[in-house]
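Regression test case RT-17, inverse folding.

Input:
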């Protein structure tokens, strides 16, 4: 499918209950023979007030804001029919390589009944080092020969608490593309931003995953890149910029514990560039216990998708699966009759504020895989 055809199909969600998109925004990539000023000039002839909000200028990718009262799908259709290069009818005057909506991705743990107990486990610190995944993945033996020294792992997530004692000296300076700031610490705003009835449900998600990577590869460096808010939701444009940031900072592994049911040409190009640089991209398969729709980036072909298994190496009942997802790793947490995590069958890691917690999900399986790769 060409980028033109793919984008035409993506205006409404491609699947029932599919991911939504940022209202009033369109993403585009300017052809090398054109400029963003030329593109905006042409768009403003039909849609006065169209502006560029932000850019990944080195790649010619822009986030465009359409005028109030104008449907972004109408602007997108105009781009696709008059401005985007069509390989079936090539026109050297077409100023765009592709255009698409700014779809949202989300951490799977925010939409399932997965266990998350934050700062309520006074004994969890000892379980962190002794959890079942340590033996299951053969960490002790593996770390006799490889600890991740000299390797950098980009964690595209909600942020990382670099001040946590468990991560002392392991976290590199990164960037927050959600707030447009170098501050990559985690924060909670107390607002239900995604309207799901839960507040800040993914606060700690990035730190938790960073802790699992560090547990698996204790000498690897963590490059925190914030692309998700505290509800675990992020926009394609921020994710694209996050991937390019990771590429430009020379990482060897990129961990993406989130996904979307919507195809993105821009995200696909970023993943392909990462692969061309020899970077291993690891992504979570999702927590909906289903095969379809395919979840991007886990099934993109340029990333390694990971499902979650329990302590018996059996696929977790919540874990997605797909023909293009080949790996599995620990990600399930069993509960005791009182509802608490079973210390012998749970996944533990760190959370902001010197805390430890138990969680479950394919995000954790992806993090263990990223650490193993490092």
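Golden output:
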């Amino acid at each position: 499918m060409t980028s033109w055809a793919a984008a035409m199909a993506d205006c409404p969600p491609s699947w029932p209950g599919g991911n939504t998109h940022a209202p009033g925004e369109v993403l585009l990539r300017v052809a090398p023979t054109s400029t963003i000023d030329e593109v905006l000039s042409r768009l403003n002839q039909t849609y006065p007030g169209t502006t560029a909000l932000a850019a990944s200028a080195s790649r010619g990718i822009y986030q465009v804001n359409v005028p109030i009262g104008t449907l972004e799908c109408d602007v997108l259709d105009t781009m696709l029919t008059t401005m985007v290069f069509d390989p079936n009818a090539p026109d050297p005057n077409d100023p765009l390589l592709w255009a698409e909506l700014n779809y949202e991705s989300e951490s799977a743990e925010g939409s399932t009944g997965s266990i998350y107990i934050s700062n309520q486990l006074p004994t969890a610190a000892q379980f962190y080092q002794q959890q079942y995944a340590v033996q299951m993945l053969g960490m002790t033996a593996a770390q006799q020969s490889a600890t991740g020294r000299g390797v950098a792992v980009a964690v595209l997530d909600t942020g990382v608490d670099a001040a946590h004692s468990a991560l002392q000296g392991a976290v590199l300076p990164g960037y927050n593309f959600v707030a447009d700031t170098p501050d990559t610490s985690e924060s909670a705003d107390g607002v239900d931003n995604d309207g799901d009835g839960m507040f800040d449900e993914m606060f700690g998600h990035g730190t938790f995953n960073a802790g699992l990577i560090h547990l698996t590869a204790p000498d690897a460096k963590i490059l925190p890149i914030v692309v998700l808010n505290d509800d675990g939701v992020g926009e394609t444009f921020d994710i694209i910029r996050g991937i390019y940031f990771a590429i430009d900072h020379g990482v060897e592994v990129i961990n993406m514990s989130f996904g979307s049911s919507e195809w993105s040409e821009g995200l696909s190009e970023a993943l392909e560039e990462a692969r061309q640089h020899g970077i291993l991209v690891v992504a979570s398969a999702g927590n909906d216990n289903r095969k379809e729709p395919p979840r991007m980036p886990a099934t993109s072909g340029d990333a390694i998708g990971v499902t979650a298994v329990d302590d018996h190496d059996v696929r977790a009942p919540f874990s997605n699966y797909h023909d293009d997802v080949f790996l599995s790793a620990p990600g399930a947490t069993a509960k005791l009759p009182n509802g608490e995590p079973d210390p012998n069958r749970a996944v533990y890691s760190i959370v902001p504020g010197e805390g430890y917690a138990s969680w479950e999900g394919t995000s954790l399986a992806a993090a263990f895989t990223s650490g193993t790769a490092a």
